[in-house]
Amino acid sequence: MKKYLPILFCLLFTSIYSQNISEKEVKTEVKEVTVFLKNTQITREKSVDVVSGKNSIKFVNLSPFIDAKSIQVKASGAITVLSVNHQQNYLEKRSKETTLLDLESKSESLRQKIELEQTYLDILNEEIAFLKENRMIGGKNDVVTVTNLKETATFYGAKLTTLKLKEIERNNTIAALNKEKFDIDSQIKTISGKKEYPFSEIVVTIDAKNATKVRFEFSYLVDNAGWFPSYDIRAKNVNEPIEMIYKANVKQDTKIDWKDVKLKLSTGNPTLSGVAPELKPYFLNFNIAPPTYSTVSNSVSGFVSDSQAALPGVSVNVKGTTVGTTTDFDGKYSLTIPNGAKELEFSSIGMKTQVVSIYNSIINVVMREDETMLNEVVVIGYGSTIRKKSMEKMERKMSISEIKEDASLEIPVDQIQKQTTVDFEIQLPYSIKSDNKSYAVDISSNQLPAEYQYYSVPKINKSAYLIANISDWEKYNLLEGEANIFFEETFVGKSLLDVRFAKDTLQISLGIDKNIQVEREKITDFKSKNFFGSKKEELRNWKISIKNNKNQAINMLVFDQVPVSTNEEIKVELMNISNAIQNSETGELKWLFKLNPKETKTFELKYAVKYPKNKNLIIE
Out of 185, 217, 346, 377, which residue is the most buried by the measure of CB atoms under 10 Å away? Predict the structure, then answer.
């Protein structure tokens, strides 16, 4: 009997102790959301009545994707926070989404209509069968006259025609209803077949000196939410400023809708291309080929799926940048790629993140389910008394305005420059559903003074790109991202706003102008080999012509190159570079000039390469 006394004492103590703790479940609303590029900080608050002594407050119905290490809890009043626990509730099931209920209702309604149409069709088939069985005229010994035969044939033909036409009509109606029901049932399977995630819960244990009302404010980071920048750039002509609309594309699938929240966007991170090409240095040496250039556009497109079907809403990002997009309903995506980019990152809720090398202009990806367990419990203890702090009040309250998909809103935004990041505070509370769709928010619109210049590298691409040079671009707090380009009131394609390597002047490529004609041709008469003793000499001659077919003068910048020798036995002699500005280290040549309307300018590029005749040298 004695050996059981300690056990009984412990059970009795535990029972008394647990009876002294007041437990309460509390539901809260999201108050404030700070969306980072890759994840989001959620802030909630609630006033709770507590009794004197120990209290356990369980904040329920929270996102399954909480980063437990990021949880912070503040409480007002004469209380001590004893512990903060994060846990997940696998027992409580979320109610069906309204969308799913609507789809199920439509499916049932269609089933009833199909059943009704099938009944009408069965009746028609019975009438047709009855008509065919009773088409005999007269009895066995009755005489059939021509008049009786005509009347019967007319009646039989008209009646059978009517019934057959109705049969066709009913069959067509049933086929259409079946197709509609199939589409709805497929959508139901897509929604209901999604993986179920448990709600998170935060349990806060406090010790209160007296019965009181405690105001709790807690925040945490969640995954499956973020934003990426994009731009609309409009240029009416080369004599007016550029209009640039800076957009934030916000998406979230945290399994919790954000309703009427205060939104912040932070730059922090806890087929048609308008990207102008760049030359590579042309170093000359034995058995080394000249630099080659890809002729494909600076864009990647493709299809993302799992093992069974297309995956909409997958985030596709150029790794190491803020350039990104999302897959559409059919799992397709298209993305402009900055020069030098090497990898794409694909991420989606419930799927393993994949990093893929950019090896082609079409990249298809099959994603796999992430089996990582979601039941990690982290306990964070606090031993200090939390003093009452005055809560900040919103300076202005405005009516809710829900962001629609692919719709831009003109809303007031405050830009706050921090030490390492910039925050955009949206001054309108609004809602974003947990549907993994992108919501475009206009966060700024600016008129940017620009100097326009046409840019061409005919060796790579015989096109003229219009470049806008922007000074003082730093004050706009821009991030790299895709840009939709509009020139002379026409959409001309997509480009890339890449600020990573910009210095005093930001260059924005406004795409190709077909009114500027660029040609580069080799003069074959000068492609020859001459021998001088132990030396061999090869001549190369190129003719570059630029024609302005526009009705206004333009500033033109043309690049080409000559090889640079890295071996003492190889000598490069420039015979004619048409007064180009030369970079002797890289071999780059540059012509900067003004071109009047309908004017054509021609440049000659001629050089000789001398090297030992017993050596092999590859010259373009």
Answer: 346
Which phi and psi angles does 347 have, rounded to 5°? Answer: -140, 145
pLDDT value of position 4 = 47
* Closest of 25, 33, 53, 41 to residue 202, by C-alpha: 25
207 — pLDDT class (breaks 50, 70, 90): very high
* Distance (Å, whole) CA 60 – CA 88: 9
Q: Is 227 exposed, middle or buried (0-12, 13-18, 19+ CB in 10 A)?
A: buried
3-state secondary structure of 475: helix
CA distances from 293 to 254, 522, 605 (A): 43, 18, 20
Asked if 539 and 528 count as a contact pair (C-beta separation under 8 A), the reply is yes
Bigger pLDDT: 417 vs 218: 218
b/e per residue 488-526 (b: at least 16 CB within 10 A): eeeebbbbbbbeeebeeebbbbbbbbeebebebeeeeeb
Long-range contacts of 385-389 (CB under 8 A, 24+ apart): 385/78, 385/79, 385/80, 386/74, 386/75, 386/76, 386/79, 386/80, 386/81, 387/76, 388/76, 388/77, 389/74, 389/76
Residue 82 to residues 69, 213, 383, 390, Cα–Cα distance (Å): 17, 17, 6, 22
Amino acid at the residue 501: F
How far is residue 525's CA from residue 394's CA, in Å, rounded to a whole number?
78
Terminal Cα-to-Cα distance of the chain (whole angstroms)? 100
The answer regarding whether domain 518-612 maps to CATH 3.30.720 reads no
Q: Where are the beta strands (DSSP E) in 279-370?
A: 283-284, 299-305, 315-318, 324-326, 332-336, 343-347, 354-357, 365-366
Q: List the beta strands (DSSP E) in 253-305.
A: 258-266, 283-284, 299-305
Contacts of 356 (CB under 8 A, 6+ apart): 343, 344, 345, 346, 363, 365
In this structure, which amino acid lies at residue 540?
A: R
User: Does residue 607 have a pLDDT over 90?
Assistant: yes
Q: Which of 476, 542, 463 is nearest to 506 (CA)?
A: 476
Task: Give the whole-angstrom CA distance, residue 337 versus residue 324.
Answer: 9
So what's the pLDDT on residue 498?
Answer: 81
Whether the Cβ atoms of residue 70 and residue 380 lie closer than 8 Å to each other? no
Give the integer Cα–Cα distance in Å for 270 and 38. 7
DSSP secondary structure letter of residue 501: S
Q: What are the domain boundaries of the chain?
A: 98-192, 518-612
User: Among candidates 73, 61, 75, which has minimal Cα distance to 28?
Assistant: 61
pLDDT > 70? residue 391: no
Mean pLDDT of 227-252: 90
The amino acid occupying position 369 is E
539 Cβ contact list (under 8 Å, min separation 6)? 526, 527, 528, 530, 575, 606, 607, 608
**Side-chain half-sphere of 591: how many Cα atoms within 13 Å?**
23
User: Global pTM?
Assistant: 0.57
